Amino acid sequence: MSPGLKPPAGRQGPGPMPSATVAALDLAFIKRSAGALPGDHRAIGVGAGTELAQLRPYAVGDDVRQIDPAASARTGELHVRQHVPERALTTWVILDLSPSMAFGTKGRLKSDVAEGVVRTISRLAIRRGGRIGVLTCGSDDPRLMPPTGGRQALGAVGHLLDEGVCGDGHADPRALLGAAERVRKMAVQPGLVAVVSDFREDDLERPLHALAARHRVLGVEIGDPREEELPDAGMLVFVDPESGRQVEADCGSAAVRTAFAAAERQRRSAVSDALRRAGVRHVRLRTDRDWLRELVAGLR
Questions:
Q1: Taking Cα atoms as reference points, which of 81, 10, 15 lies closest to residue 293?
Q2: Which of 12, 58, 155, 201 has the fewest Cβ atoms within 10 angstroms?
Q3: Are residues 62 and 155 in the same domain?
Q4: What's phi and psi for 255, nearest 5 deg?
Q5: Neighbouring C-beta atoms of residue 263, cutoff 10 Å
Q6: Same domain for 258 and 120?
Q7: Which tens digits make up the pLDDT trace of 1-35?
Q8: Where are the beta strands (DSSP E) in 63-191?
């Protein structure tokens, strides 16, 4: 387990993830988020695909199964066909593990929903020979899983998710910005980048816009209903999990509750506007709803 990370005390897991629902998300995920099927990104070199790379004379050591009968008969000399490899899409996930992701007041925590989203995206990403890479942020020890394909990729993603989230008061306030810049430098070939976060950082537009200049970017925002309005419960002490600061508020005051709700609406609107200007497709999920169905609906 990574230093500074631990499974949240109230961890519930993402809940049911029916294969049929995940399968229904497949084409929506590719067509709406990536903008193209994996066949639109050619792999490097030549291989055993279906698209012709070159037709050349046979040389000792060539695979006899690649001999082209028509060209050989036409020229009187054995010729072999070489094909480009099957194409594949590389998907990157930037996963926010900051302390605020351990918050939740309904069916599950925000980190539980994030776990389900990452597992779903990973399952979809490795289809048709694709690869999945993950970079975590929000803790003092970000983890990198280089792009990997096949079933082993799912195991590596699961191991990373099991490490948990960052403890209260130890967040990096600009971790998401740094992660976006790091992925921009690493992901040379165009692909899909999914950012899974509650987007509690400021100044997100510039780094996400830079990512979107080369990739299709999906922003999955995860929230909890208690972040949108305060309960009518008298005096309460709140702790900011990111900084550890405490503040006392009179939740019995209608004016306080109204001002809080208005400020949160303004924050959510600012996040939506920033993602839209950055060219990021925005999907908002909540802990008190069926996040998988909302993800399907948001990508259609």
A1: 15
A2: 155
A3: no
A4: -65, -40
A5: 10
A6: yes
A7: 445 788 888 899 999 998 888 877 886 766 654 44
A8: 79-83, 90-96, 131-137, 144-149, 165-166
